[in-house]
Amino acid sequence: MWFRFFDVLFSVIGLVAGIPILGVIFVVGLFDTGSPLFLQERVGRNQKPFVLVKFRTMTVNTKSVASHLASSAAITKTGGFLRKAKLDELPQLWNVLKGDMSFVGPRPNLSNQFELIDERNKLGIYSVRPGITGLSQISYIDMSTPELLAKSDAEMIKSLTISKYFYYIFATVAGHGAGDRIIK
Hints:
By secondary structure, the protein is mostly helical. 46% of the residues lie in helices and 11% in strands.
């Protein structure tokens, strides 16, 4: 219950306080790709699909695949900066506010990542809301290693406390973790 309280509180604060930053990134994105928002269906709690919102970091016609299967050539210059600064994740505050996601939880996967879905099902990962960050993200474990990712997610879920919730958020903001690997 406390996790949801903090999710709502921080997402409202982040969206209200972040309006100028969100606006600037949106306008820059219009010039960069012509389509600054990226909407993608992901697998959520209880395997219910939801639409994830991010700032676009790749060219508009890039095939919708898991990040570790995408080519780095598709990343725009602005997109590279947004990814490095983790600013591409800011629109997910809307997903958190709506209840599709939490700040802390397993990263939501695509519905065609069958190996990851199988591994996560074995460990009950879909019983919780997916998150913007978590143990796997700050430990440099991405979706290219499904079994390891699912085990890390299960460990996080089993041991999640309020202090660890805040630790994962602050560690992410401080620059720990690199996001999903991209093919060069």
